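A quick word before the example. In earlier lectures we treated sequence and structure as two separate objects. From today on, think of them as two lines of the same record. Here is Sporulation protein written that way.
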Amino acid sequence: MSRDYANRKPKTAKKPRATRGKKAQPQRRKPYGLFLMVLVFAGVFGYFLWWLKSPTTEPAAPAIKTPVVIEQPNAKPVKKDDLPPKPEQKWTYQEELKNKQIEVDIPESEKLQVKLYQMQCGSFRKESQAQTLKARIAFQGFEAQVKRTEGTTGLWYKVVMGPYEGKRLAETQNHKLQKDGINGCQIWLWQ
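And the structure line, produced from the sequence above:
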């Protein structure tokens, strides 16, 4: 077997396996434009800060105005003695406002009435159960009372809190009790 060494094609170097079958990726250009814009912006910002820091022109001295005298052909010269005296202005409204009293009639129906509320957290047949709930409420930092009432169905022991001057305060305490596991408290108008 003879080989033709003169007309043979030169062997090319084999590509590594990682790059076989993949297209050649174009080289990325470096962002010179972006770098240049950031550099210019930093320079302008630095100049602006320097301009703010540097003292501007010195404050100008207040201008002294000289009165302009316009001569009129047939005008009489005015002397200071011919001028009327300056009137004295005394403002009295300040003293009047200090001593002024205003009376406003408000009808009885429009007057604000403070409503008192109470919160009932339980009603039990046995006093020991009511005292247990009262103790649980006391551990939360609130004060409760056990009231004995006789109803149509017999004797009841109610655990109540209050009175509260507003419903908001009662609701706030109710939410705190609910977070601590004491549920079922009801808010009522106090009698």
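Notice the following. Residues 46 and 52 are 10 Å apart (CA to CA). We will return to this example when we discuss secondary structure assignment.
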